[in-house]
Write a structure and sequence with these properties.
- The chain has helices spanning about 1-35, 35-60, 70-75, 80-95.
- It contains four helices and no strands.
- The protein starts with a helix and ends with a helix.
């Protein structure tokens, strides 16, 4: 039983290390290909999108009680087909991480 748990944890760490490692290795290559000013502008745009998204998520979370997950947050606001699509994408993201 413990061996199976250790194999699962080891596999999870392997996926996490690969994901983080690939991203960190690609950053200098992308910066060298497009130049420093373009890389800085793209990082500022990326930060801006993440910041605005977090503000919108914070506003949405303030309307619901504590402990609500993302699929519950969208249940009142979106049609069922979008809820299914979001849930599948959310599960794939959690699987990838």
């Amino acid at each position: 039983m413990i061996v199976n748990i250790m194999k699962t944890v080891g596999g999870a760490f392997l996926v996490i290390g690969t994901t983080i490692g690939a991203g960190m290795l690609s950053l200098p290559l992308i910066t060298a290909a497009c130049g420093l000013p373009v890389a800085i502008v793209s990082m500022i745009i990326s930060w801006s999108v993440m910041y605005l998204t977090s503000l919108k998520l914070l506003k949405l979370c303030s309307k619901y009680p504590l402990g609500v997950n993302l699929t519950t947050l969208i249940s009142d606001k979106m049609p069922v087909i979008f809820q299914v699509i979001f849930t599948v994408i959310y599960l794939l993201l959690l699987y990838a991480l």
